[in-house]
Amino acid sequence: MSDIEFVSHPAADYFPMMSEIDFDRLKDDIRLNGQVEPVLVFGNQIVDGRNRYKACKALGIEPRMASYGGDPEKITSYIISTSLHRGTLTDGQKAVIGAKIKPFYESHLKVKSNASDMAARAVNLPTKKVSSVIKIIEKGVPSVIAKLEAGKISVEDAIAIVGLEQDKQEKVLEIVSTFEKENESVIKEEVVSVCQKEEEKVAEKIGLIKDAEQVMLEELSNSVEAEIEEAASEDEKTRLADMKEERVAAAKRKTEEKVASMKEKVEETVKAKAHKVFAKIQDLQKKKTRQIKTAVKEIKADEVMLPEFIVYVEWIHRNGELNMAVKNSELVKEDEEFCYVKGVGGKKVPKFAVLEKVDSKDFAVELCAKAEGLGDQHKESNEEAYLTMEQQFLSEFKKMASDAIS
Q1: C-beta pairs of 317-323 under 8 Å, 24+ apart in sequence
Q2: What is the pLDDT of residue 122?
C-alpha cells in the first residue's frame, strides 16, 4: 500500500460520512465488484471519495486514486457542488451543512447578510431552518449536534432538546441512545441479512454459470479441433481455427451478459427490500421523536415542581452598621452558585444566603415574619465579623424554620 496517509479536505468534512449500515454495504460492493470510482485527491487531501478510501483501507485493498485537475482556488466550491446532490441526506443533515458552509459564503460575498440565504439555497432548504440549526449549534451540547449531523434526530427534535439546560440535554440523549440500541440493531441486522442472502444467491448462480461455460468451452474446443483435423486443406484449417476463436469469444460474451443481467436483478431485489426496511426506519424515527417529546416534557415538569419561593437573607450597610434583612422572592431558576429570583434585571441570590425553599408564598411570608427579630440581634459595626454573624444567623434561623415546619 502507498505510504502516503490521505486526510479529508476541510470542505469535505462539511458533509457527514456514511451510516454504519451504508458503509457495510459499500464494503460488500467493493469486495464483490471492485472499486468502480477512483478517490479524487489534491496533494494528500481527499476531495471526493472519503468513504471509498476508508472502505478500501478496511478491506486491505490499495485504493485507486485520481488527481483533482481543476482550479485549486475552486476546490471548496467543487466539493459543495458535487457532494450536495449525492446520496440521501435528511433535512437535518442538510441544515447542518448549510450552517457549516455559511462562513464560506460570508468570505466570498460583499453583503455578509446574504450568506444565510445563499447557504440555505445551496442545501435547498428555507433560510429559517438553517438559522435554527445555527442556534442549535450555539446552545446544544456536542452530542446533540452529532446526532443531528448523523441524521439520527430531526431539526425539530434538536430544537426541543436544546430548550433545556445542557445537563438536562444529556439526560434526553441518554434516553435516545438507549432507544436506538434497542431498536436500530434489529434493523441493521435485517439490512445486512438481506444483502448477504442476495449476494450469496448471485455468487452461487454466477459460479454455476461459469462452470457451465467452462464445460461448454471445452466441448466447443474439442469439437472444433476434431473438425480441424478432418479438414482437407490448410486454408480450411485456418478458417476453422479463426472460427473457433470467434465462437469462444461469443460464448464468453454471452456468459458475461448473463452475469451482468443477474447482478442487475439482484440490485433491484435489494433495492425493493431496502425500501421496506427504509419504511421501518422512518417509523422508528417517528417513535424516537415521540420519545424525545415525552422526555423533554417530563424534565420540564420536574423543573416546575421545584420549590417556587426562597427565603433569604440580605446584608445592608446603614449608618455605618451592617444590618440583616430577611426577604422572600419567587424562584425562577438556579445553578451551582446562585438562585435567580423574579424581579427587575433577574436578581441573583448567593446560595449561602438562601435559608429555605418553600412551595408557598404564604409560608415564605410567614417565615420572614418570624425571622424579623433575628436581624436586630445580629447587628455588627464592621465586616470582619461577617462570617461569624452569618453562621450564627443561619443556625438560629434553621432551628426556627425547623420548628415552624414541624
Answers
A1: 320/381, 321/379, 321/380, 321/381, 322/379, 322/380, 322/381, 322/382, 322/383, 322/386, 322/389, 323/375, 323/379
A2: 87
